[in-house]
Amino acid sequence: MLNETAVTEFLLLGLSKYPHLQSEFFVLFLILYLMTLLGNTLIIIAIAMDSHLQTPMYFFLSNLSILEICYTSITMPYILMSLLMNSNTISSAACFAQTYLFTLCATVECLMLTVMAYDRYVAICDPLRYMIVMNKQVCLGLAAMCWFCGILNSVLQTYPVTLLPYCGPNEIDRMYCEIQPLVKLSCNDPYLNKILRSGSAIFFGIFCLILILISYVYITAAILRMNSAEGRHKAFSTCASHITVVALYYGALIFMYLRPSSSSSHKMDSLVSTLYSIVIPVLNPMIYSLRNKEVKGSLKRGLKKHVLVACKGFSLHK
Q1: For residues 156-187, b (16+ Cβ closer than 10 Å) or e, as one string?
Q2: Are the C-beta atoms of 40 and 66 separated by less than 8 Å?
Q3: Over the stretch 126-160, which tens digit does the pLDDT of each residue have?
Q4: What's the domain range around 139?
Q5: H or E stretch including 66?
Q6: What is the dihedral of CA 131, 135, 136, 141, to 10 degrees?
Q7: 111 in a structural domain
Q8: Between helices 56-85 and 280-290, what is the axis angle to 10°?
């Protein structure tokens, strides 16, 4: 049973300093949200409808796209509603729920990017056994493991936060609720929460990043050993999108959580949290589709097919 707290709602101050730009922010975030939904949905449809994309790499990419849709849907609707109604309050229950779901998605993304790096490692370093090692059961198991660990870590991280006493202040200098600012608002010393958060950051942040870097050390060595320049280019191109996404996502996380607390800035924290929770989900489908000829080809074929069907249907009804 949750402890009773004096604070029953929190104030999200991420955009409160710009009251004269509420309409502009609403339009901007609505466009970003729609772009995220459209871009990631198109990637999921392209992979589901094209038999040529039924491979482990695209299976994990579709999981990543589903994750990005979840990521923004946790925060964006409330941000848009707050801007529309000119209100920045959120109930403690809604704040804790948002924190739980956000932590879940952040954990799954760290693990999914690690699994995708392993997939590229097997594809380039052991290509003859790729479809044996990365068979359907293995891929499903790895994806399930990512989501299960995300749920488990989110419960372990968020539940103790709901038990903390909050007696004021209740201001969070973000656009949505996260564990880090909530812990800072607690009346008591959140010693357990700090230990759990540090353990999570070490395992899902640092350890996963080390595994990704090790994978790319072996991948780079394998690519450099290739005799054909065309083969090297093709091998690198299959990794380029993943490397870009990893650099953006982990770069933001490292800046956010691993820099000294003395250099912390509320305005900068809010900006960086916006980057990895709102901007990166918009960029991911662009990065993967623009740099991937197979995804672009599948989308073009699907679009042409539906246009032809629509044209035929229109001509028959004339």
Answers
A1: ebbebbbebebeeebebbbbbbbbbbbbebbe
A2: yes
A3: 888 999 999 999 999 999 999 999 999 999 999 98
A4: 9-317
A5: helix 56-85
A6: -140
A7: yes
A8: 140
